[in-house]
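Notes on consecutive records. When two proteins share a document, each keeps its own sequence and its own token line. Never mix them. Below: protein one.
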Amino acid sequence: MVNVDAAVFQKDNRMGMGIVIRDHKGDFLAACRQGVDKITNPEVAEAIAFRRAVLFASELQYHQTSKQHHVASPCNRACSGLVALSLASLS
């Protein structure tokens, strides 16, 4: 299971994200955190964090994971193409 969350820091003009990967029993396997400058929209921040979580799981070769995310709308918008942001440059 992959848990992911993001937060925006308006005063600092940046976002932060945290990712935790657990096994099927809930035991800790891996974690990472990352900050990104010039991102202050909460939905964009959540979409970026979700994408980073997928990349992180792939990097560690955890291909069969379930993603747990507390905000559905960024994922829905990202999947439908409504979040117009080039995320490729962030990886």
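Protein two starts on the next line and is unrelated to protein one.
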Amino acid sequence: MYSLASIIFILYKFQFGKRFEKILSWWTLLLVAINFTLTVSRSSILGAAIIIMIFTFYYHRKWFYAGLIAGALAGLALLIFPILLDVLRLASNPFSYRDQLFELAISKWKERMLFGQGYGTTLIMTTELFTFLQKGYHYLLIGKHFGNMYLELLSETGILGFVLFVPIIVILYKKQKKLWQIARGDYKVFLVLYRGLFWGFLIQNVFESALLAPGNGVAFLFWTFSGLLLSFERLMLAEEGTQTT
């Protein structure tokens, strides 16, 4: 959470901060990059990259194209030198491991297609793939998330839950699109950053299960920003009313 929140704050200061704040933001960005490197959270790196790309597309188009070129070169380097995947720890938790989880998610969904297995039951469903871990005289059965929020939502809540959830995302998308036409100043910057968070987090959840996790910090950040988004139209109208009186 803190890394993505820091990215959003840093980008805002890059655009509107004073000289000292911009210098401080560079150092903060370096710390965030070190954190990403040490934790090797690939999905978080992907989410942060999308936030930065969308922000630079609107405010620093040269940086946007430079980022695309750098990303393409990095991808090419990984293809030419696959050993870098192991050196950078990018190949840990291989996709064959995810395949087992995906197959399990689909099979569990097929057992109860309409209503699913029940919200929050993923850790119980996945225990059959994992071994007992001994702790003293006790054995703990360890489960995992499915590594894909959409499959997890489908297996837990079925078609009914999935169909009821999709309109929420559609409403948020249409709301930001509508506000984009009338937003000015800081509201416009917020919408740019929210767009980055919106697409970054949704794509990030293709590779992890965080969007609906109660204790996940990035989920808290996403839904908090979404709540602010829904209140923006009233805030902007109120601000215009005070300016005209």
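For the record: The chain has ten helices and two strands.
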